[in-house]
Amino acid sequence: MPFDANLVLADTTADWTYASLVTSNYGTPTSADRNAGGLVVVDLKALSTTPVTGLACILFIDEAGAATDDALTVLLQACDLEAFSAGVQTLANFEVGAVTHGVILGNECPCTVVRRFSTNLRYIRVDASCADADNFHTCQVMLAPWPFHTM
User: Fold this and answer.
1) Strand 71-79 vs strand 123-130: parallel, antiparallel, or unpaired?
2) What global pTM score does this model have?
3) Residue-number span of the structural domain to which 96 is assigned
């Protein structure tokens, strides 16, 4: 794997369905311990926040949604509290077409979405949700410390 295992925000433990993301609440992790859905809060303390060039957050969806109108909302969030109980900031949202601000549709998948960000907050997580009966199969979200080449 070309990514550091400590920089994986969401692995392929469970399908990204309404049942796992919303009903079981796996889509909003609140701990540095990986939840049963495979999502986790990452502590940036070891990195002393983000480097001056920032980090890249990469969302991998390797299958089409179960239906073309399925809708997945994915946000990259930061906070100074591991539990994300107050002071939550949204750093980036993920979309493929500008028509659906912050939402990925089933017919836009498979896809890879990269967002560059920087923050001085300590913890980051991905917050994922979808509507009832939607299914995006297994997805991954990873951080990369080398977002883009600079000149």
Assistant:
1) antiparallel
2) 0.90
3) 5-144
